[in-house]
Write a structure and sequence with these properties.
heterodimer, A: 290 residues, mainly alpha, MetI-like fold, 77% helix, B: 261 residues, alpha/beta, 2 domains, six-stranded mixed beta sheet, 9 strands, globular, binds adenosine-5'-triphosphate, binds magnesium ion
């Protein structure tokens, strides 16, 4: 017999059966569950709060060192519903972070694109850019406050100074990794410089810019708040200093919680922007492998 | 009238550590308007390099290349790369539409043309898919659709069907011949495959290695349109056998020179 025998398993599944996704395994279900952190996070937080409460009770700590969780919550609830906190502190910090980010994007992405495109320009300006980063930036804060005053503008500059570097590095790296074949394609289509940039370089670099944004948004928040700590009249950093001076420790914890939520919100906005701006990118695709 | 004129072209690549290598040596070639020329030769003989020089993606170290687009002035070429080179952020349809966008074709006409092209390469239902959702062969076919979209007069193709299975390849070859018979583009087509070369070519330019040079030029006078059945004919097989012998000879000298070196 020369004919190749087709071997079939005892029961061949029909096409319909194959097209139907297989029932996910337990671990796949866990991994693919988009709401996973909505269950686990509260659970972990609850555990943490219980541990906190027990610690305070057992050791009988002073309320000025570590208030019990419920006191912090009461303070936080009062703060978050207080229009004064929103208007003077949260809004001020938000404004500083946003303006700082805007400045950092213009500078960081702009310079990053130029550096990425021109190795010559890179060699000329890089020492100065690295210079702005190796100087301990916090040490520059008093200087900016001296120059620009206690108002928001000094914090805007500090936030921008911290945020622009990750943007610059990521952007220039992205532009430089545009594959040569992409440029070849544009050349065969007789693309102008502008078309080359707009249709190949920029979309290719977008995921890199957004990765930079994730870092930048955190850095800008740190920059603004540290600026306020060291010399400000408004903002969440200043608010924390005031509470510390008044020994309102429960409210100080509340302020820290507000800062955390503030940073978390901004960060979520950036990750959300990923899905919107680069839906095609691997990092946004559902994971195929564990 | 010659559409592409390659005159005394040599190409030196500067390698690592100051070691440079001669990839092409004194290549001259005249390609007539509307001619279908196939570059054939063993791997590494400089086919891609020559095609890139013709497409002005690379400049020759010595010699010159002139491209006459006829009355089309500055119209872009159609270039099919050895790898598909699709833009991952564009859907299939948007990838095919790229040359049309750049030529300023209005949107309506564009979608029409894109649909036509995708049908031509046998991928009508993939419009909305992204490149990473396609198979390698499908990606390559999309890149062919893109190269044809703006109806370029000169078409340069670097092993465009290398990633396809034999049947699809036969079908694509027949399609390509049909398109070419319809409007006689000037085509330079690179391949390893002898039968593909004989099936498609007016002229087959055989390149030899070390350094890349023109080994021989063979006219293919088989009548057109050629069909898959014709590949069984005596004339076809005779020609293919002769070309295989030549490739063997080229590779042999290559091996010998490698041993003596
Ligand atoms: N950019 C480059 N830098 C240095 N050497 C190169 C470069 N491009 C090609 N070469 C060399 O030139 C020679 C010819 O390469 P080419 O890509 O033209 O071969 P090919 O005939 O297209 O081969 P294949 O059929 O495998 O695609 C090879 O030896 C290769 O190593
Ligand atoms: Mg090649």
């Amino acid at each position: 017999m020369t004919a190749t025998k087709e071997r079939r398993p005892a029961s061949t599944p029909s096409t319909d059966e194959l097209l139907r996704p297989p029932p996910p395994t337990w671990s796949q279900r866990l991994r693919n569950n988009r709401w996973l952190s909505f269950y686990t996070s509260p659970l972990l937080i609850a555990l943490f709060l219980v541990a906190w409460k027990i610690y305070v009770e057992v050791t009988d700590l002073s309320r000025f060192v570590l208030p019990p969780p419920e006191a912090v919550f009461k303070a936080f609830a009062a703060q978050i519903t207080d229009p004064f906190v929103w208007q003077t502190h949260i809004w001020t910090t938000f404004y500083e972070v946003m303006m700082g980010l805007a400045l950092a994007i213009v500078l960081g992405v702009g310079l990053g694109l130029m550096i990425g495109k021109s190795p010559l320009f890179d060699r000329i300006v890089r020492p100065f850019i690295v210079g702005t980063q190796v100087v301990p930036k916090v040490a520059l804060v008093p200087l900016f406050i001296l120059w620009l005053g206690f108002g928001p503008s000094s914090k805007v500059v500090i936030a921008a100074l911290l945020a622009f570097f990750p943007l610059l590095i990521n952007t220039s790296f992205g532009v430089r990794s545009v594959p040569g074949s992409m440029h070849d394609l544009m050349t065969t289509l007789k693309a102008s410089r502008w078309e080359r940039f707009w249709r190949a370089d920029l979309p290719y670099t977008m995921p890199f810019i957004l990765a930079g944004m994730e870092l930048a948004v955190v850095q800008a928040t740190i920059g603004a708040i540290v600026g306020e700590y060291l010399g400000g009249d408004q903002g969440l950093g200043r608010y924390a200093v005031n509470l510390q001076n008044n020994l309102q420790v429960d409210k100080l914890f509340g302020a820290i919680l507000i800062m955390a939520l503030f940073g978390f919100t901004l960060y979520s906005i950036v990750t959300g922007a990923r899905r919107l701006l680069i839906p095609w990118h691997e990092s946004v695709q559902p994971r195929r492998r564990p | 009238m010659s559409a592409i004129k390659v005159e005394g072209v040599s190409k030196v690549f500067a390698g690592a550590g100051g070691q440079s290598m001669l990839a092409l040596s004194d290549v001259s070639l005249d390609i007539a308007d509307g001619e279908f020329v196939v570059l054939l030769g063993p791997s590494g003989c400089g086919k891609t390099t020559l095609l890139r020089i013709i497409g002005q993606l690379e400049s020759p170290t010595v010699g010159r290349v002139s491209l006459d687009h006829g009355n089309n002035g500055d119209r872009p070429l159609g270039f099919v790369f050895q790898e598909a080179t699709l833009m991952p952020w564009r859907s299939t349809a948007a990838n095919v539409a790229l040359p049309l966008e750049m030529a300023g074709v209005p949107r309506r006409e564009r979608t029409e043309r894109v649909r036509e092209m995708l049908e031509l390469v046998g991928l009508p239902e993939t419009e909305g898919k992204y490149p990473h959702q396609l198979s390698g062969g499908m990606r390559q076919r999309v890149s062919i659709a893109r190269a044809l979209a703006h109806d370029p007069q000169v078409l340069l193709m670097d092993e465009p069907f290398g990633a396809l299975d034999a049947q699809t390849r036969d079908m694509m070859n027949a399609e390509l011949q049909r398109i070419w018979l319809e409007n006689r583009k000037t085509v330079v087509f690179v391949t390893h495959s002898v039968s593909e070369a004989v099936f498609l070519a007016d002229r087959i330019v055989m390149l030899g290695t070390k350094p890349g040079h023109i080994h021989s030029i063979t006219e293919v006078t088989l009548p057109r349109p050629r069909t898959v059945d014709m590949t069984e004919s005596a004339e076809f097989r005779h020609l293919a056998a002769e070309l295989r012998r030549q490739i063997g000879a080229v590779q042999d000298t290559d091996n010998r020179s490698a041993v003596s070196a």
